[in-house]
Amino acid sequence: MSVPPESSMPPPSPPSPPPSTPPTGELQPEERTWGMLAHLSSLLGGLLTAAFGGGWGCFVGPLIVWLVKKDSMPFVDDQGKEALNFNITVAIAFLILMVLSVATFGIGLVIAIPLWVIIGIAWLVLTIVAAVKANEGVRYRYPFTLRLIK
Fold first, then answer.
1. 61-105 pLDDT, tens digit each
2. CA atoms within 13 A on the CB side of 83
3. Cβ contacts of residue 145 below 8 Å, gap of 6+?
4. Which among 59, 63, 69 has a CA at the least distance from the CA of 30?
5. pLDDT tier at 139, thresholds 50, 70, 90
6. What is the distance between the alpha carbons of residues 140 and 138, in angstroms, rounded to a whole number?
7. Is the pLDDT of residue 19 over 50?
8. What is the C-alpha separation between 99 and 105, in angstroms, rounded?
């Protein structure tokens, strides 16, 4: 029996380079931070516009974060859309209550004012919870949200 020469064996393959991105499911700290900012920016927008008409700017912050980072960071794309949808839903609820108040010549304020307080507190709590979850790398979903932007 003859032994094949060593030259006929294929050369060993070079070691594979380390992956440049983290494994699936693991997010970069920068991506988690931007996801958190997508949620917290609604608080800033709401506070800055509160003096000029009731905080209608609550959706401007998430819109800006989402538009700037949606193409480069999938997690921020997801959380930005979620924050934007939630804040648009809250703005619609506030607008409906305002129309109710005006249409009933102020009588609707009996219903509107307590609901504004309840919705406002829920908005604050859910926004903070979402920001904490996003900072942990968890894709948070707000309850009772119209999914207008897909």
1. 899 999 998 899 999 999 999 999 999 999 899 889 989 999 999
2. 39
3. 82, 85, 86, 89
4. 69
5. very high
6. 6
7. no
8. 10
Residue type, 89: T
Give the count of alpha carbons within 13 A of 127, CB side only: 28
Token pair 């608080």 in the structure block, residue: 43
Is 66 within 8 Å of 88 (Cβ atoms)?
A: no
Alpha-carbon distance of 127 to 53, in angstroms, equals 21
Which of 58, 85, 69 has its CA nearest to residue 28?
Answer: 69
Distance, CA of 5 to CA of 52 (rounded, Å): 85
For residue 36, pLDDT over 90 is answered with yes
Q: Which long-range contacts (CB under 8 A, 24 or more apart) does 121-127 make?
A: 123/46, 123/58, 123/90, 124/43, 126/86, 127/39, 127/40, 127/42, 127/43, 127/83, 127/86
CA dist 25 to 32, 77, 128, Å?
Answer: 12, 15, 23
User: CA 109, CA 87: separation in Å to the nearest integer?
Assistant: 22
Q: In sequence order, which residues have a C-beta less than 8 Å from that of residue 108 and are 6 or more positions away? A: 97, 100, 101, 102
